[in-house]
Amino acid sequence: MPEVVEKWYSNGCYPWISKSVRIVFGHIPFSVGDIFYFLFIVMSIRWSWKSRKTWKTHWKNNIQLILSVCSIFYFAFHVLWGFNYYRQPLFEKMKIKREYTDTDLLLFTKKLIARTNSVQFQITQDKNKAIAFPYSQEQVFQMNIKGYGILSKELPNFHYSELSAKKSLFSLPLTYMGFGGYLNPFTNEAQVNYLMPMYHSPTTSCHEMAHQMGYASESECNFIGFMASVKNPDLYFKYSGYSFALRYCLANWQVRNKVVYQKLLQTVHPGILKNYEESDLFWKAYETRIEEGYHLIYDRFLKWNQQKDGIEGYSKLVNLLVNYYKNKSL
């Protein structure tokens, strides 16, 4: 019942729950949620070790305890955030078409290349020079509020308040799993992987902040994160957003038509490609079977929670961008 969820949960009680939790945890300088997860893992290992000898005689009680704990977490997950998985899609709410033609994609990609090239040159005054991001992670979190403030004047549904964004204490495990961040649904903290190249930070953290506002779909959060970044008056934030979206469009062309892909790639400033190479080298340095396994698990998790595209849903950003900006300037 997406209409019911949209009205009574996502736009009803959830904003009050989210805001309250962010007020409680937002001013604490470290990640409370990460510490909670760590303690839970330690306690689970400790309990498993202590109860290993009693499994044969008390297995019913042990299974009952495990199911009880899981049910509490499952209930808390849905009440505090998880029901947002069942809300109305952004495509419907904003009346954005789902499909697009090759012509639509080509026009949008060319427009996006022009904007990304322009911002890159404004910053460096040299089309061959990669962007060196000048801000700290904490500065990015604070500056994101300005981008969301400008965006909400145009689209009020994307109003953001009560900042609660943290550098994840699990940044190294996140890197091995291939993720730039996540939202803790129990503490409503936006967790960001601080190890990845910093030019990704504005769009990545804006993505997690969109999750805080109650948007569960990964493609929708990519879309909202992009808009919040490019609406920011700071050029480095605009570059983060434009280069992020451009990479998705180029990847789309790489699959659709390699000839067109190569032609488009030749029009992208070498400095932008150097930033892409920086990212590729970073992620490749941490590639293991762990990433493949975790992506498979997360894909199943998303599909289980009504996200039928699973982890491929991230790339649906292109559908939203192409059709939303079809008659709008970037």
Structure description:
This protein has helices at 2-26, 32-50, 55-80, 90-93, 102-124, 137-154, 171-177, 201-212, 218-230, 235-256, 258-265, 270-284, 289-304, 317-324; strands at 165-167, 181-184, 189-192. It has 330 residues and is mostly helical. A 3-stranded mixed beta sheet has the order 1-3-2, with helices on both faces. Helix 8 crosses helix 9 and helix 10 runs antiparallel to helix 11 (258-265). The longest helix is centred in the N-terminal third of the chain and has 26 residues, at 55-80.
Features of this protein?
mainly alpha, 65% helix, 330 residues, three-stranded mixed sheet
How do you describe this structure in short?
This protein is mainly α and 330 residues long. It is 65% helix and 3% strand.
Q: Could you give the order of the helices and strands?
A: HHHHHHEHEEHHHHHHH
Radius of gyration, in angstroms, nearest whole number: 21 Å
Overall mean pLDDT: 90
DSSP strand content: under 5%
Largest sheet: 3 strands, mixed
Overall 3D shape: globular
Number of strands: 3
In DSSP terms (H or I, runs of 4 or more residues), the helix count works out at 14
The SS-based structural class is mainly alpha
Strand order of the largest sheet: 1-3-2
Q: Distance between termini?
A: 35 Å
Any low-confidence stretches, pLDDT <50, length ≥5?
none
| Helical proportion, percent range | 55-70%
